[in-house]
Design goal:
This protein is 55% helix and 15% strand. By secondary structure, the protein is an alpha+beta fold. Strand 1 and strand 2 (128-134) form a beta hairpin. The longest helix has 20 residues, at 62-81. It binds ligand 1MF.
């Protein structure tokens, strides 16, 4: 993933636990990169190892770290670095979710090594939406919960998020229901 993602993990960890804890996490992860360059694409393995080591060092389940990271991405990383991109994504939660594929397509145009997941929307009602998540990566479902929670929070919406089907149960993609 782009260095921006690893940087965001670093920022999230250091803002809560300080730089010494982050250095310990990098040591446990056996990652010796001093500074992640935002626009450089790193092997996904680096990100997975950092999350695994953070889980070990902080004594928190990696699912919790991934979920927190999903929220952090929407509410801090993307907002601070890509505010206008997000603003163009829409003024309401359902509008934003409908525009997410277009947003990823625009980013992928500029950054050719991006491997964006797809988020397709179906079964819209005035107070719910169904989201279909497909990704070339595995194991990131807890992050999807966090991303969807972050999008809801961005629009000051209290949304309940449930997973209706999952890769884990043999389905060919993940389906989430957002209700508010
Ligand atoms: O392949 C990638 O490197 C990659 C990186 C980040 C792919 C996707 C993303 C963003 N995505 C992270 C979860 C990926 C899970 C998966 O692969 O199964 C979150 C997508 C998302 C969901 C809900 C709401 C908002 C979301 O993101 C908006 C967004 C998406 C991408 C970027 C910014 C905001 C982005 C911009 C520039 C990037 C990388 C990602 O790369 C840079 C950064 C700085 C300089 C040059 C390139």
């Amino acid at each position: 993933m782009y260095g921006m993602v690893n940087r965001a993990v670093e920022e999230m960890v250091t803002s809560h636990f300080g730089n010494d804890t982050w250095l310990e996490i990098k040591r446990v992860a056996e990652v010796d990169t001093e500074v992640f360059v935002s626009l450089e694409a790193y092997p996904d393995d680096v990100t997975y190892r950092l999350v695994g080591a953070a889980s070990e060092v902080l004594g928190l389940p990696s699912e919790q770290i991934l979920e927190e990271f999903g929220q952090y991405w929407v509410l801090h990383t993307a907002r601070d670095g890509y505010g206008s991109l997000l603003d163009a994504g829409g003024a309401t939660l359902p509008e934003f979710m409908r525009n997410l594929p277009g947003l990823h397509a625009r980013v992928a145009l500029i950054f050719p090594n991006l491997k964006p997941p797809t988020f397709a929307v179906s079964d819209e009602t005035p107070n719910s939406i169904t989201v279909h998540y497909r990704s070339s990566r595995t194991g990131l479902q807890p992050m999807v919960f966090g991303l969807l929670k972050g999008v809801a929070a961005r629009f000051q919406t209290k949304a309940a998020i449930t997973r209706l089907q999952s890769y884990e149960d043999g389905a060919d993609h993940d389906v989430y229901l957002m209700q508010w």
